[in-house]
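Quick one - inputs below.
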Amino acid sequence: MTATTTRRHLLRASAAGAALLASPAIVRAQTKDLVVGGAAGMAGYMKEFVFPGIEKRLGIKVVFDGTRSLVNLEKMRADRASPRMSVVLMDDPIMQLGWDEGLIAKMTVAAVPNLAKIKPSAVHFDGAWANYQQPWAGVAYNSAAAKGVASYAELWSPANKGKVIVPSLQNTEGLWTLLVASHLETGKPFKDAQYDMDAGFKKLSSLKPNVLTVYTNQPQAENLLESGEAALMAGQFSSYTLIRAAAGAPVGLAAPKEGVFAMPSGICKVKGGPNEAMADAFIDAYLSPEVQSILVEKSFVLPTNTAATIPAGFVVPADPFVPDWSNVNKNRDAWIQKWNQVMG
Amino acid sequence: MSRFGIAWLAAPATLVCLGLFAVPLGLLLVESFHGAQGWSLAGYRDFLGSAYAWGVVARTLRLAALTTAICLVIGYPAAFALAWTRGWVQSVLVACVLLPLSLSVIVKAFGWTVLLRANGAVNLALMGLGITSAPLRLLFTEAGLLIGIVNIFLPFMVLPIFASVRQLDPRLPEAAATLGGGPLYCFLRVVLPLTLPGVIAGGTLVFSLAIAAYVIPTLLMGDAYQTLPVMIATSFLYLQDPMRGSVAGVVLLALSILVVVASTWLGRKGEAA
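Output:
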């Protein structure tokens, strides 16, 4: 008897579930879901500090799909005919690939008014995507071993023999070490040195005695720096190192005199994605001074909206350098192979 | 007829091996001859013509050979202790060999990254015993890698030798001694030949594991230490160059097969003698 009732209940529930699944448009219209792709690592502070305000103001529900930039790109490729995501947050080099493949819809100032207030170096291809924040990258140091890093040349200093950690070129932040090497070897500014990476590899080969390890796994490397096994870690960015420092870890992030780099955090609208107007409004919120001020405070990034406020005591290094990502994408494979030969 | 009847028992294992090993390996082989420009030998030409690739092969073989040799030197006497002790001592020794196998390789490798630090247990012990006066750099060195990898693969050397030693009648070396054979003669002419199958099995296992190790070198040496498995991962994951990765995979497979065939041959030769 009980079994029969249970089975009937189950059948009824299944039928209701099937009906629900068969009409996703209705469900979507009712809840005003906006599917946003992004990095898994940012899910915590975005869900805590950023999404609630936007959801309330726009009357929507943000469904955050946190993974890696390359995975988001794969999803955009796979769903090209009928995209599920409306907005995607990704690194610039991956944005570039998405733009080249026609997966991104260009934004307009009419639909996204805050786009006009973003500093020009943070808007790419006339609105294909924009940087909503710029974590800056310098050199991380163990605060017991060093008080700061005045120049990138200190990475090469004999005093740091076996004490330097370098990110692999397979990681986005790996590029900065190569670029710095090229700059130090040629004396050219970053904007020219980025096209002369052969000189960078030459200089990089002399870094080897100082290299403790080349990482692809950042948390493991961060652990070595915090424990004092390493003194310096190249290519580190504010939205990681400074969050650790704020949590009490004995690390600091230095902005050497040669300059710092912009870690590229972009936002874009998926071409043909659902809820286009809602997507525009969501992007506009990300480019607004209000949201960017929250990000500045919570994740130690530079804002891109010129009107965003910066909290007292927040150290802002000089304008971070933005590289030519299309040049990076074009050469990355060859560079990785050469990198392995030089560093191996 | 009855032979075929028994052979059917291997059907599930055969299916698994065909579906999960033979077919993917076949695809790997095909991929190594097929690039963006269609069928070609370019992948092999690039690989065999690259001094860097040869360096990677040499480093991979060196790591596998050193690991096997050290495991043998440590594991061979340990297997005798394991087989010839009795009672609770034997239980403790067996537990020492088997229990570490239940721990994930990743956990063990991470553990070594902590133990091998300048202020880690290994350096503190060396300095405490007065062997060294200052911390040695062990982490991200080949010495550190060997310490970690030998620790992780040692049971795979001990267990097959242990199985051989258990079958060895302890009275045989005694008999040889009674007949006037010196200790070295007894070992070389009686004990070693009788335990050789275990040595060959253990050596093959450890060599195959070490030549294909990916996690341990990655964690203990980092990205700068390129071996064939690391090269395969980089090719597929980052360079999006399946042909390069497949060629490296085929080379790794060929080296492993070579070792298995050579050890089987050695084993047969040992039996015949």
